[in-house]
Amino acid sequence: MLRTRFKDILGLNRRNQEYIRPYNPPSAKRIADNKILTKRILRKEGIKTPEVYKLIRTKKQLEFLDWDSLPKSFVIKPNKGTGGNGIIIFYGKTKSGDAWIRPNGQTMSQRDIVLHIENILEGRFSMGSKKDIAILEERVKTDPLLKQYSYKGVPDIRIICFNKIPIMAMTRLPTKRSNGTANLHSGAICTGIDIATGITTYSMHMSPTAIMSDTYELLDKTIDLKQNKILSGIQIPDWNNLLEIALKCQKAIGLGYIGVDIALDRDKGPVVFEVNARPGLGIQVANQTGLRWRLEKARGLDVKSIKHGIRLGKNLFGGEIEESIESISGRKVLNIVERVSVYHKPAVSMRKRKQKIKVDKEIINTFMDTGVLTSRMTSSLANRIGFTDATKYFKSIEMPSNFSTLKDAQDYIDTQGKEIVKHEDILRLAKVVEDGKINIRPVIRITVKMLGDVKDIEVVITNDIIYPLVIGRSELSGYLIDTTKTFK
User: What is the sign of the dihedral through the CA atoms of 387, 390, 393 and 398?
Assistant: First the structure.
């Protein structure tokens, strides 16, 4: 069930009357409905699309097709197909070499493929059953992150844009039931994506046993995989770039209301599968919120540039489901810059100058940095919370100001480090790069409080940081990072 107010949901008739007809001119729709023409226009704009191997326009041309020139892995799709109909993915050939293998393990002989292409040419899968063209194109090699959530096929990311603003997004994950395609009506999983962060939220798939059509079931894990994984809380890679690509597609094609389908290729990065002038409404189920109120908010706004449109989309429609992300993923959401309480070392206290109040902690603006493993702290903060003796002791030690290589630094730690760590507050020594030079710095243990969680963490004392405290990725497992906001 969709967890939103009924009046916020966009229906098919309202979508057609208020958004598709007024904002999608016939000339732009003709481009969007033609995959070959779409590819040409997008490539002129520098937007990547899957490479085309062959275009089959006639049955006569099909008779002379050089099958040996085709790779073992490729995709067949109708040029003007709708709803993913007519698309077949091949992953390789049989050992005998006389048949191609589909994601579900079934094989198709050359004769089977010829019959399918003939159906495409006759218009069986095209809008209005008009004669069509068969496209034989490159099979995208799925990015390693999303590959682990998909059954063999290529997942894609759909972003709906209106008035140059990204409105809503989801990723569609192939299943065994969908034969490796990202078609929701065939059984693929749809997972909502928070516009602001690019983090996945709710997941659904169409019920295989429901009496009524378009009946969805809520999921929390993948299906058909050896190890089914939690679907919420996945950070989609390169999210800002994906939003920018979607808006560039909208501008290039000329559609005011558009759905852009993007795949993440292992080698090429974002690749646009197709653009859709009539994107389906199942994306509302995936996000557990309606499109209608979002479209009404975006209507009439003066959008000055693509970057401006992205900022508007994030501010208007992002972050509202943060609590939902936490509840369904079991992971709390940290801002990129968060207020963190740092406790003083036991038996160390401070008194405010004018008020006789004992202070046992400081609240510090802290940067969440997944680029470093171990957390870091400035020496001034270390001194304030009670580690002055440790910093003075380390400073008094005679050691090289820097080292030529990491190996040299490690050799020094192995030979001289035992004496240094005899100080009660110094746990160990760490190799760090400061201003391009390799140095050795002390590591201490402190107590912090983040989002209500009190924990002991190890920090390297270094002054080569902007914030007084930086939390590294060794302490960030179990959390999600919202890169769009600082503390509230």
Answer: negative
Whole-model pTM over 0.70 = no
Residue reference for tokens 């009439």: 300
State which residues form the domain around 365. 332-486
Are 274 and 347 found together in one domain?
A: no
Nearest of 341, 401, 347 to residue 366 by alpha carbon:
341
Which residue, 139, 157, 175, sits at the end of a domain? 139
- For 302, residues 6+ apart whose C-beta sits below 8 A from its C-beta are none
Phi, psi of 270 (to 5 degrees): -65, 130
Q: How far apart are CA 379 and CA 393, in angstroms?
A: 12
> 239-253 and 35-44 helices cross at what angle (nearest 10)?
110
Low-confidence stretches of the chain (pLDDT < 70) are 1-5, 209-214, 319-331, 347-359, 482-488
Neighbours of 433 (CB within 10 A): 13
d(CA 78, CA 100): 19
pLDDT in tens, 431-444: 998 888 899 999 99
Question: Which three-class secondary structure string do you get for 210-236?
Answer: CCCCCCEEEECECCCCCCCCECCCCEC
Q: Which residues pair with 134 in a beta bridge?
A: 56, 78
Dihedral of the alpha carbons of 206, 209, 212, 215, in degrees to the nearest 10: -20
Which whole-number Å values give the CA distances from 357 to 342, 364, 384, 410, in the listed order? 17, 19, 16, 45
Average pLDDT, the chain: 88
Say how far apart CA 190 and CA 228 lie, in whole Å.
15
Q: Report the C-alpha gap between 179 and 90 in whole angstroms.
A: 10
- Dihedral sign for Cα atoms in the order 16, 19, 23, 27: negative
165 neighbors 309 (Cβ within 8 angstroms):
yes
Q: Are residues 16 and 160 in the same domain?
A: yes
Q: And the tokens for 304?
A: 């000055």
The tally of domains found in the chain comes to 3
**DSSP character at residue 127:** G
Give the amino acid at 451: L
Using DSSP bridges, classify how beta strands 358-359 and 361-369 pair: parallel, antiparallel or unpaired.
Answer: unpaired
DSSP 139: P
* Structure-token match 């499109």, residue found: 291
Q: Could you tell me the two tokens for 98?
A: 């006389």
Answer yes or no: is 1 within a domain.
Answer: no
| DSSP 8-state assignment for residue 174 | -
CB 361 within 8 A of CB 350: no
